[in-house]
Design goal:
207 residues; mainly alpha
């Protein structure tokens, strides 16, 4: 019987090198108060491979993020850079607002806005989720998105991952543009202080 253990030593070393480089860049752009542990593992889930470009990340707290990867997916290295930067940003946001207290979609929009704008500063590759819609398309979707923004975030995060009403990645695109606007008069660390009224006002102005 033949068997394989994934990630292999070389795959793990490569992923660790990428993450080390990204975290070094992240610390220069936005500092953290808490120490950070990154749990790194392998994922063979079809969704991760085909929908997430081989990388999945989640922030549990200011001190802990988890990243799973699959090197069989083309372009996984760039995806790993982007996800690492995004989760780092989430861990900074969580220092002010715990992940468990991000209950409503307007909060989640700000949470992802910070991550998107930050990741764009760190990685060289384009943010595909955020830029997968034209401004005109976002204007068409904004009224319905606006109606949902005061609702609690559902388990599937449907405004971001898609439903029959909202296409996949819509929330990321809207968040990105709101984040770019927020950056005109505040720092990344100040995103955690943004109010619902500000999110609505900026969205109305943009879309």
């Amino acid at each position: 019987m033949e068997y394989a253990i994934r990630p292999s030593n070389s795959e793990l070393k490569q992923a660790r090198r990428i993450i080390d480089g990204v975290i070094a860049a992240c610390k220069v752009v936005m500092t953290k108060e808490n120490d950070l542990e990154i749990s790194l593992g392998w994922s063979d889930e079809e969704y991760v491979k085909h929908e997430m470009k081989g990388i999945s990340g989640y922030t549990y707290s200011p001190e802990l993020i988890a990243i799973e990867f699959n090197t069989n997916v083309k372009g996984w290295q760039n995806s790993l850079k982007t996800v690492t930067a995004r989760e780092y940003a989430h861990s900074v946001f969580a220092e002010s607002v715990p992940v468990s207290e991000i209950d409503f979609y307007w909060q989640y929009t700000v949470f992802e806005a910070q991550a998107s704008v930050f990741a764009e500063k760190i990685v060289e590759s384009p943010l595909e989720k955020e830029k997968s819609f034209t401004k005109e398309e976002l204007k068409d979707y904004w009224p319905n998105y606006r109606e949902k923004i005061s609702e609690e975030v559902d388990e599937d995060r449907s405004l971001f991952f898609g439903t029959e009403e909202f296409p996949k990645w819509l929330g990321y695109a809207i968040s990105y543009h709101i984040g770019k606007k927020l950056m005109e008069d505040r720092t990344l660390k100040e995103f955690s202080k943004v109010s619902k009224s500000e999110v609505l006002s900026i969205g109305d102005e943009l879309f």
